[in-house]
């Protein structure tokens, strides 16, 4: 025990001004010089600190309350950290800096006055899970990284415009935070600043903010309206990742935020959207639907594309949020993948995809005897399901192909005859499929030409 701590504090020390009983300091494990331990009528123990504290000085302090007197103007890093019994701290008006980790891991801390504080260091109140009332000074200039990380009982905060950056993960894990007011002057919403803040429903980003960084609002499952001003010129692709099905970005048309929402499949509006009641369903027709492929080549088999449905930056689940119905899907043609709302969703929308006849590739032509042209392919084209081919040809001087011959066989081999000698002719080919009397044609091949010499 340090010099001075062996003295027994007289019982009458503070009785005149407070209904407290002072306890002999040597009967407790006290870590600071000139500290007084007080027991009130309810049995609450308070440590009254009368001198500056160095780093970790009251680490794991076993008492419920700490009073920091006006004599104190400096408190070291992690000074009160891991004090699991601590419920309340009263700081003197001289304390303008809350240092790194001051109350880190004080799980039962419920309140602390920050009226005179201008800067809060990194991890200052991390894991203070019962901290409820947090009111920042209007003069506060900085709130450090993870300063209020995992403070799951905080419900409301207001940050003044003197703070230029909402730093990384500063309010991450504040699951009951439902009301935030950010004032003009803030420039950046840092990485993970409001990550996992499930209680947030409406957020207004103040004018003047320039950037919203990685995972700033990720996993805010109940976030509904986020108002983003024209001043914002950067939003990370992951800023609103996994924010639930109802998210709407409110922004002016043609602004960066408006375009960001469109490009990231997030619902966007120029006006605040009134949140639907719990028993109201969401219209799935506003969702973004994408197919893994929208073109298939006919082979006589069934083709069904893989469907992804996104809404509010959230990927909906087949069988839970929607059902799929396919039209056609076997014969050549244009077919639909229909998305039918289910569960929290209603309505429908569809996405077209095609099954087409494979175009002819790798065919050859050559001049053969009797002023003829032979058209052939070394390999069978595309699939065994081809019904036949059409061959179009013309004199190179003509603008259009006027003559078409039809070949009803799956093998491309045909001779066209009686052309004029020493003239050049052009040929193109396409194949077709007959499915129950319905003809479907491939695109025409590229043009090949040959000069008649024989």
Automatic annotation (TrEMBL):
Residues 359-454 form the Fibronectin type-III domain. This is Leucine rich repeat-containing protein. InterPro entries: FN3_dom, FN3_sf, Ig-like_fold, LRR_5, LRR_dom_sf, Surface_bspA-like. SUPFAM superfamilies: Fibronectin type III, L domain-like. It comes from Eubacterium uniforme.
């Amino acid at each position: 025990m340090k010099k001075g701590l062996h003295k027994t504090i007289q019982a009458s020390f503070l009785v005149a001004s407070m209904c407290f009983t002072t306890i002999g300091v040597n009967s407790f494990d006290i870590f600071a010089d000139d500290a007084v331990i007080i027991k009130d009528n309810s049995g609450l123990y308070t440590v009254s600190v009368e001198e500056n504290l160095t780093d970790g000085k009251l680490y794991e302090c076993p008492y419920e309350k700490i009073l920091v007197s006006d004599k104190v103007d400096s408190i070291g890093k992690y000074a009160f950290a891991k004090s699991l019994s601590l419920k309340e701290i009263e700081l003197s008006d001289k304390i303008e800096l809350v240092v790194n980790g001051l109350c880190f891991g004080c799980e039962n801390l419920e309140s602390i006055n920050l009226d005179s504080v201008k800067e809060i260091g990194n991890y200052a109140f991390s894991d203070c899970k019962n901290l409820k009332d947090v009111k920042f000074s209007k003069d506060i200039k900085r709130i450090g990284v993870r300063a209020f990380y995992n403070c799951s009982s905080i419900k409301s905060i207001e940050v003044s415009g003197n703070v230029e950056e909402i730093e990384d993960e500063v309010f991450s894990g504040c699951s009951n935070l439902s009301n935030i007011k950010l004032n003009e002057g803030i420039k950046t919403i840092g990485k993970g600043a409001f990550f996992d803040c499930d209680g947030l429903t409406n957020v207004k980003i103040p004018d003047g903010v320039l950037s919203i960084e990685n995972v700033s609002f990720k996993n805010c499952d109940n976030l509904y309206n986020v108002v983003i001003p024209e001043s914002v010129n950067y939003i990370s692709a992951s800023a609103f990742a996994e924010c639930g099905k109802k998210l709407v970005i409110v922004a002016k048309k043609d602004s960066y935020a408006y375009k960001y929402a469109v490009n990231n499949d997030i619902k966007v509006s120029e006006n605040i959207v009134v949140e639907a009641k719990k028993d109201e369903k969401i219209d799935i027709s506003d969702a973004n639907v994408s197919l893994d492929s929208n073109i298939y080549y006919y082979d006589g088999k069934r083709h069904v594309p893989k469907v992804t449905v996104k809404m509010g930056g959230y990927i909906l689940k087949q069988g839970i949020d929607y059902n799929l119905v396919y039209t056609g899907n076997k014969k050549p043609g244009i077919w639909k993948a229909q998305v039918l709302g289910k569960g929290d969703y209603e309505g429908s929308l569809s996405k077209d995809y095609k099954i087409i006849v494979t175009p002819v590739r790798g065919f050859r032509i050559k001049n053969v005897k009797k002023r003829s042209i032979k058209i052939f392919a070394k390999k069978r084209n595309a699939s065994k399901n081809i019904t036949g081919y059409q061959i179009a040809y013309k004199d190179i001087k003509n603008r259009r192909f006027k003559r078409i011959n039809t070949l009803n066989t799956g093998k491309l081999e045909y001779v066209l005859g009686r052309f004029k000698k020493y003239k050049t002719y052009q040929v193109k080919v396409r194949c077709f499929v007959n499915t129950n009397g319905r003809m479907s044609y491939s695109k025409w091949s590229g043009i090949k030409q040959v000069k008649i010499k024989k």
